[in-house]
Please model this.
Amino acid sequence: MKVPVKIGISARHVHLTKETYDLLFDKELTVKNPLNQVGQFAANETVTLKNEFYEIKNVRIIGPLRSYDQVEISASDARLFKLNPPVRTSGDLVGAEKITIETPKGQVQVAGVIIANRHVHFSPQDAKKFGVVDKEPLKLAINGEKSGEIDVVAKVSSDGYFEVHLDTDDANAFLLKSGEEETLII
Model:
């Protein structure tokens, strides 16, 4: 089955626990703009990611606060930091690399750096409609100037909004923009 699906490009960002957030900020996490995934948002608050080799300022926090600290970067970012993070689904931090997260208030080192696996968000209703289960491997056909077919994984969750999430490296490789429509092969 071939299904049209929108592309969402996910730039580097962090997910923080309340405990870590409180070490870095003296105020509540605030909403800059809501994301398509129900209840999630890009926060106004940003952090600096750094190690002895590189530093990136103004990295967005994605809310709400989580039960784990996670830093999602691209392979291009990882090279600058001289890190070798694993490709993982969100929340799977086995083998994740360490990095320092800093704000004017303080800094904390977390072992949560990953490269996010390409995935397609589904609500339980959409998963049932398309006959898809969580973590099922699927294909995304890209039909633009730099066409191709790539592997993606189904991510079924109660807050799921039907769209593909790619990091900036994947999007740039295929000349994709957020909001464009491509074809999911189920």
In short: The mean pLDDT is 97.
